[in-house]
Structure formats: structure tokens, C-alpha cells
Amino acid sequence: MDVISDLARNIVDIRYEDLPQKVVEIAKKFIIDSIGVGIAGTGAPGNKEIVDLVEEWGGKKESTMLVYGLQVPAPEAAFVNSMFIHSTDYDDTDDRTATHANVTALPAALAIAEKMQSDGKALITAVTVGVDLICRLALASNLFHGWHNTTTVGIFGAAAAAGKLLGLEEAQMVDALGIAYSQAAGNRQGREDGALTKRLQPAFSTKAGVVSAILAQKGVSGAKNVIQGQWGFFRLYHDYSRDYEPDKWAESLRDELGTRFEGINLSAKPYPCVRCAHAPIDSALELATQHDIRPENVEEVTVYTNERVIDTAGGPFVIRTNPEVDAKFSIPYTVAVALTKREVTLGDFEEQKIRDPELCKLADRIKVFVGPEFKGSRSVVGPIEIGIKMKDGKEFSNRVEFAKGHAQNPMTELDLIGKFKDCNKHSTKPISDKNTEQLLTMLGELENVDDMSKVVRLTA
Asked: Which end of the chain has fewer beta carbons closer than 10 Å to its terminal beta carbon, N or C?
């Protein structure tokens, strides 16, 4: 029997009462974090045009767009809110696979929860099983490197979360995941080219996941051997340059299923850029503070990391058609910001700041190389090493093992609240202080909320 049956049964059977308290608390933490970065994302370039387009399409008023307050069909609300969450590259990450999890599971769940007037416990449960499925698939799958993990596996988490809130039975959940499989896609070329489609791909998956669950509810069938079939997910999507081990991968999907929830291993982002730039930023901030480094006195900076990090963000900083994307995916640019400002914030990715001549000159003096001891590593969070050579001949260096935000170097609750409030300042329409405090209180006590629509509407 295909492992999809076990996964579907687990999604259907899990109740809020089955979730350990630690799992609930961490799920709430990332729900708060995701809504915060989604609020910030409403002001990102290109998003207003998509909001206007969805509004123009119209349709049944079921679910709400964050901040804008527009009510649209549930799949469209899920699409837009997912886009908002991913727009600033500030959303959570599973550092083991560089996969963002809540960006698909949460907006899918929010849209259906509002449509169904579900309570907070139901939302927490749906998001938890959706995130767990995303992380398990990303960990188990030997994906070809050109796929965009967040999008390719995220669709299954979106379908699971939506289907859970719709009350799908086991056979319907298998259909929902099968229908989702027929749409599983997403590639890394948009990021490579600095295109805004980088932020749209998870949104496409989120919308498709919601539609998949609704279609299954209506009786539409999907593939049944989704994971281990002749042309199932494992065979079709795996990296053909690496070993093919479907039985081993299937067992890893089943391992402690229903008792271990992978969402507890997610990392929150302290900086609004690609995760693999975070350890270099941490290192640069520490050195700048410790040695009072002034950017004008820096001769050169050398970052040592692994090939995966270099492939993602280690090339020379070049501004193309979308400066924001170029900057967010550049270790030279983000390290230059850290050394110059001794912080890295949302405002540093506005076009005027990105084009600052002095920042660009410093970024040109920052080079990223493969460190001999890091060669072959797949980690995006460290260890890394940085060396800074000053114009007066002095040299400074240090090493970061785990980037801030990692489960072994977590952000504090105070950090996360501060991040939420700063995100609100970058919203296209900041929420009032009164509503912000009320929203944070409700999200902090989400298990006591009787109707999720009350939460969503506080953002508008």
C-alpha cells in the first residue's frame, strides 16, 4: 500500500487533544510570525497589482485578504495571503531542507477556517498537520536540485490543512493529495533570474492545495499511489544523480507519524533575506560590534561556506530588473549592510537603499568561497567563517555554528514580538496600535478563539 494512505489517515485522525503542549506553543509562535511577515509583505513591489487583479476577478465573498480586508473566494484569499507571507523572504524555514512551511499551510488553513467559521483549535491542528507533512516530504524526498522545495512539497501541506478543516474522510484526503500531486511544481529559475515569480510560486501551490481539497470534497478523484507509484512523487521528482531508495524514504515518512511533529524544528528568521545569508550576517554583526569596524576602513571580506550556499547567494552582487530580489539573495550585499548599519532590516531592501553607491562598493569587496572543511555540506545555516582585512593591515575573523533563529540558537519571544511590530510599520496600511495589541493577544491565546474570522479581520 502506498504510504499516502498512512499520511492521509494520520491527517484525518489527529485531534487538537493529541498535540503535545510544546507543539501547540511552537505552532502558535509561527502563526504569529507568519501573519506578521504577511502584513509586511502587503507593501512589497508588485503585490498591489495582483491584489487589484484578484479584486477585478471578483467572486463569492468567503475569505479575507490580510490588511486590504477584501473578501474573495477562499482559493484566491489563500493565494494572495501566501504571496504576502513570502514576499519579504522573512518567513520561517526548515533549515535542514531550506523549505518554508507555514507559507503554504497557514494561508490555506486561514482561508478555509474563515469560510467555515472554524475555531482556533481547529486552525492550530490543521496548520500542524500541514506543516508536518511538508517537512516530512522535504526530508524524505531526494528532490532534483532544480525544484523549489517550498512550492513542490508545499502544495501537499496546503491540501492537507484545507482538507482537515473541511472535514475530509480518509479516502477523500487521499484524493485531495492525489489532485494536489497533479499540480506539484515550482522551480528555482525565477530566483536565479531575480523574478517576482519567486514569491508567487508558493502562492500558486497554496491556491492549488485549497482547490484540491475542495474538489475532493465534491467527489473528484485523484491518483491513489501518489508517493510510491510507478510515476509517483519519489520516482518522478528525485535527483537522478543520487541513489533511489523509495522504501527507505517511505519509512522515514511513517517514522513516529502522529507522535513527532516536524514543525518544532522550524527556524524563525531574524533578517528579511535568504536563510543562507543569515550566518554570514550574524558573523559580520559580531565582528563589527566587537572591533568597531567602519566600512570605509575595510579592505576586503572573505566568507567561507559550502557549495550549496554559494550556488544560492554567494555570487557577486549585481542589480538586475528586480533589485529587491537581487539584494535578498546576496551574501555580499547583506554582509555589507550588516557591517555598515550593524543591523539588517526590511528598510534595507528598498530600491533606493540597495542602490547606495557606498554599499555597492563595499559589497564588491566581499567574496564568498568554499571552505575546505565545508565542502560537500548541505547546511544553509552554518558553520561558516568570515575573515575581514582592514586597510591598516589588521585582520579579524570568527565562526558561526548555527545562524540565529535556528532551534539551537532561537529567537526570543521578545525578538518575535519586536519583529511583528516592525513588520506592521512596513505594511501598505499599518494596523493601529490598539488592534495590534488585540491581534497579538488573540494569536497568543489562539486555542481560545471561537471564530477565526475575528482574527483575520483585525488585520484590516
From this structure: N
Rounded CA-CA distance 118/398 in Å is 49
Residues 132 and 189 in one domain: yes
Helix (H) or strand (E) holding 300: strand 298-305
Size of the chain, expressed as the number of residues it contains: 460
Let me know whether 138 and 228 are in one domain: yes
44 and 100 in a common domain: yes
pLDDT digits (tens, 9 = 90+) for 349-407: 999 999 999 999 999 999 999 999 999 898 888 999 999 999 999 999 999 999 999 98
Structural domain span for residue 361 = 275-400
pLDDT one-digit tens code per residue, 104-162: 999 999 999 999 999 999 999 999 999 999 999 999 987 767 899 999 999 999 999 99
Would you put residue 291 in left (φ > 0), alpha (ψ -120 to 50) or beta? alpha
Task: Assess if residue 143 is contained within a domain.
Answer: yes
Integer Cα distance of 188 and 179 in angstroms: 23
The reply to whether 28 and 167 lie within a common domain is: yes
The answer, as to whether pTM is greater than 0.90, is yes
Query: Confidence band (pLDDT; 50, 70, 90) for 46?
Result: confident
Q: Is 296 helix (H, G, I), strand (E, B) or coil?
A: helix
Asked if 233 and 374 sit in the same domain, the reply is no
Residue 408 placed within a domain = no
Which residues, 6+ apart, have CB-to-CB distance to 434 below 8 Å?
none
Would you say residue 237 lies in a domain?
A: yes
We report the CATH number of the domain holding residue 381 as 3.30.1330.120
pLDDT tier at 322 (50, 70, 90 boundaries)? Answer: confident
| 14 shares its domain with 142 | yes
Q: How far apart are CA 397 and CA 388, in angstroms?
A: 6
DSSP output for 381-396: S--EEEEEEETTS-EE
Number of domains observed in the structure of the chain: 2
What is d(CA 399, CA 386) in angstroms, rounded to the nearest whole number?
6
The one-character DSSP state at 353 is H
Helix%, strand%, coil% for the chain, nearest 5: 60, 10, 35
Q: Are residues 357 and 389 in the same domain?
A: yes
Q: Please report where in the chains the cell 525578538 appears, as a residue.
A: 415
Q: How far is CA 151 from the centre of its chain?
A: 10
Query: Shortest CA distance to 103 belongs to which of 125, 131, 64?
Result: 131
